[in-house]
Amino acid sequence: xxxxxxxxxxxxxxxxxxxxxxxxxxxxxxxxxxHAGETFGFLGSNGSGKTTTLRALLGxxxxxxGTLHIDGKVFEPSDGARLGYLPEERGLYQxxxxxxxxxxxxxxxxxxRKKAEDWSHAYLERVALTDKAATRVDKLSGGxxxxxxxxxxxxxxxxxxxxxxxxxxxxxxxxxxxxxxxDDQKRAGATVIMVTHQMEEVERLCDRVLLLKNGTAEAYGTxxxxxxxxGGTVIRLQHSGPLPASDLYDITSAExxxxxxxxxxxxxEADILRELVxxxxxxxxxxxxxxxxxxxFLKVYGSxxxxxxx
Amino acid sequence: MSRHNLSTVIxxxxxxxxxxxxxxxxxxxxxxxxxxxxxxxxxSNQSTSTTAAAQKNARFSFTYTDDSRLVxxxxxxxxxxxxxxxxxxxxxxxxAGSVDAYFVFPADPVTQPVHIYAADEGIxxxxxxxxVAKQILVTAAQQRIGSPQLAALVRGNVTIxxxxxxxxxxFGGINAVIPPMLFVLIFYVSIILLGNQMLSSxxxxxxxxxxEMILTTLNPTxxxxxxxxxxxxxxxxxxxxxxxxxxxxxxxxxxxxNLPSVDxxxxxxxxxxxxxxxxxLLGGFILFTGxxxxxxxxxxxxxxxxxxxxxxxxxxxxxxxxxxxIVSDPQALIVQIFTYFPFSAPVTAMLRNGFGSLTPLxxxxxxxxxxxxxxxxLRLAVYLFRYGSIEYSKKLPIRNTLRRRNHA
Lengths: 310, 408
What we know:
The structure holds two protein chains of two kinds.
Chain A: E1 10-21, E2 24-35, E3 39-44, H1 50-57, E4 65-70, E5 83-86, H2 98-108, H3 113-126, H4 142-154, E6 160-164, H5 172-187, E7 191-195, H6 199-205, E8 208-213, E9 216-222, H7 223-229, E10 233-240, E11 249-255, E12 258-263, H8 269-278, E13 282-290, H9 293-301
Parallel strand pairs in A: 3-7, 3-8, 5-6, 6-7
Antiparallel strand pairs in A: 1-2, 1-4, 8-9, 10-12, 10-13, 11-12
Chain B: H1 2-18, H2 21-56, E1 62-66, H3 73-78, E2 81-83, H4 87-96, E3 101-105, E4 115-118, H5 127-145, H6 148-154, E5 164-166, E6 169-171, H7 174-201, H8 203-207, H9 211-215, H10 220-252, H11 254-257, H12 271-298, H13 302-317, H14 323-328, H15 333-340, H16 345-355, H17 360-388, H18 398-407
Parallel strand pairs in B: 1-2, 1-3
Antiparallel strand pairs in B: 3-4, 5-6
Helix pairs in contact in B: 1-10, 2-5, 2-10, 7-10, 7-12, 7-13, 7-16, 12-13, 12-16, 12-17, 15-16
């Protein structure tokens, strides 16, 4: 199921990674690479070990075993000027003004005060928070704080952007805004590692994905590879009359006049259409598509008992 | 980059502290209270001195009897007094209001009270009778002695200077004790003022969930050193603000406040004890700072950390319970324990240094101990913050955190 990645020199390299908390093995023998310029979806259910892996990669946790490298070496905070990290556990200095917090982090990431201030004002304008520059962070709504935190994450134009559930807590409008901002970073050449449960975002943005289950890689490769591994093509059908069972396909969903069929191995879509017509089904619409990541996600994690630790 | 980040952290931490309204309310409360007290003292002193002068020179009619034979008629008459031989009549005259007062000077005014019978003029004005009776006796005694110099000596108006020797060298006495004792004062003020802030300095990152952002941007050592330095600057600012009203009061209102004149030129600065005192202060400050920051990194909230802070406070005050022993018998077992136990060592050693009973060898051992434990505490604080503060809402299991490193 897991495919090796051997293309080029990776920006992020993880191999033989194991993480124990007490007697509990949270991650075992995890290995994957992320290459410069690609957008990588790091997927998994709650508690599968995604955040733990990111924290170990960034030196926040000490790994029990394994190699976790960024640009060929273990991450040090002094490399922070090249990194943008939006952690799952959100937080900013609550009693300070928005501008003070942004400038502080900008300065820590190597920007001059002037550049940090100019960048902050421009960003606040983009996310419609211009009038909040002097407002204390704790006076902002949760969504507004998220926008500020994303700004703090990307203000140094990072080479590597690690986003742990970036759209968490956003409404659809702001989610679109945020994804546009991430898209901009990607176009500017940033390598993006993204943890999210929004599968449509993954399909839209990610080049490759890894599905983590119980601390091990369940699937790893390009989005298409993973889709092919978990069902490949599906047929979406609009019809009238009863839908007969067949050796050529499985009916994965059926509701009124709509159904989704999964072709069995080696079966051609044209054979299925012919079979349906021959058996008297009035086919009004017959389209083929890849299995969505959301379906794959449900298939992989649907019956899983969630471990206690993230 | 590291130095840039250190100055950034110091600036951010300092300015966000001094920008808080609560900081200024707390800091200005003490000088404001001092200013109010000083104003009351000035007003009270002015009123008291005016009243005392008025009472001492008050003119009223009185009769007197004098069994001491000290008071001459001439002296009594200058204050408006007339001698009488009939006590009952004199009291009756006072009651009738024909004279204001009747003084009974006893045979021995030193051991027997002077009785006064007088017309009531109110609680405050009645003081004039005491003042005049006393002034009459003082003047009478001075006249009997016959020499202003002898009279001054009798009153104990004598200035004495002394010079003592230790190991063949001049010892400054109390003037040599005062300067090194200032280090004890600075130590107490800094720990009391800054202790809670040291404790909560890293808690803030945890409580605000900023730890991960910080740990991936900034070396934790830089963060903690930056916080400690900014706290130190804040402490200096607070001490300056606290001292300001005292300095202003002394320089401009000394006579109004009845403050004694302090001649600093008499203070003796012994280079050895001053250097030892400064090193003990610095070592003690590093030890307590490191310990408090480490406690802050372990505990999830300020409330949880406060109980440990209380214990540390006890340890810096406990040497004062043995201060008489520290002065009289510095080799006593309990004094030795306090001298070498890290958390009671700074105060005990600074006291002994001030009193001159800390030998060079003992100084060297305690200073080395304080710096060693101080840097260990700071290193531990950095380590606990780095690998422990991610446990945002839990008390950190130190053993697990330390063990985790060995697995890596």
